[in-house]
Amino acid sequence: MKITYVAYDDLSSPGPRHAYFFAKNVARLTGQKTQLIVPTVRQWYGNETDPPEAYACDEVELHVATREPYIHSERCLKYRGDILDRIKKYSPDIIHIWTTKPFPVVLGYLARRELNIPLIAHCEDDEILLALRKEYSQTYPRMLLYVLSAIIGIQLVNGITAIQPVLGDYIKSRMLFVKKPMKVIRCGAELDKFSPLRDGGSIRKELNIEDRPVVCYSGFLGDYSQLEILIEAIRIVRGEFPSVILMVIGDGDKRADYENLVAQLGLQQNTVFVGKKKHSEVPNYYAAADILVAVGSVNKYNDRRLPAKFPEYMAMGKPVIMHNSGIARQLADNEQVVKTYKGSAAEFAEKIGTILKNRAFASRLSCNARKTAESLFDWEKNSLDLLDFYGEFIASP
Fold this sequence. Notes:
Elements: E1 3-7, H1 14-30, E2 34-38, E3 60-64, H2 80-90, E4 94-98, H3 102-115, E5 119-123, H4 127-131, H5 134-137, H6 140-156, E6 159-162, H7 165-173, E7 182-184, H8 201-207, E8 214-218, H9 227-237, E9 245-249, H10 255-264, E10 271-275, H11 282-287, E11 291-294, H12 300-303, H13 309-315, E12 320-323, E13 338-340, H14 345-357, H15 359-376, H16 379-391
Parallel strand pairs: 1-2, 1-4, 2-3, 4-5, 5-6, 6-7, 8-9, 8-11, 9-10, 11-12, 12-13
């Protein structure tokens, strides 16, 4: 079984990395090399990211449409002729497009038309709500393009995979004419790299935060990251734990605003911004933390997604605090994760304080987090589920 994956962005983005790890594991399970197409190697905000060469392996035939920097993925469609030639040369049995953004939708449709093979779409977010966020789309014409691509893409494909059940149910409701086969296929974590055995001592020493309780947030620093809630929570926690540290991994256009807020609240000695790190470096920073936090609120967008950091948080075997939406609804509160329901700074502060004061509680959460990751977020297990789904579209000999 030969599979071509077409991702919407470069491998510094979580979604395309998910496509890569599925491609790699499917190849290992089938003994057949897979193909992965990515549009670009762009680098936003001047941050270094893992280049394609960092992902070179025998299992995946990786092609980059262009190395032109700072180019939106849809503009990479001007290289579609070369990309389609590569796909035809590989001669896949199935094309799996990674989300319904314009680049994979157009390429997937063109390749299916020429090769007459099944086309499957993978959904990781509510693409319509995502496109309607001005900070994501940036311009109204681009917003319209992404909304139309999300609507049309679902109708064009033969089957759909969704990253979690709530999103899957929503996608089913958007199938206007013919109900397509659909299966929930969760992403995973590299369980050997994101591991409780990882030592964070060198990072603590480098950041001069040895022997201090560390709360870690990882993610893009934009309008919707809501990091201000966690910053205010740390201000509250500091009253009982004066040496507490908030370690922020990530970058974005709101970083300066968050740094200013830290200064206004007098939290400079309790906060460290480490910037965006290569994905290969992230486990070392997680290992330096005592608590891993996913800030957010309960809304339709969050309810339909599975934050890419969450499987990796759980795999680290650390206490995890997150809002009660999406995947969290399927997990036991105060056993697998610690949930927030209001999303207020006071609530986050209370949850952080409870974990820091109760070592037995923290230990139980840590143990259960790792078990949950091994059960839900194992790349090989989830790739087997994906292969079963592929089998529905390929006729038996």
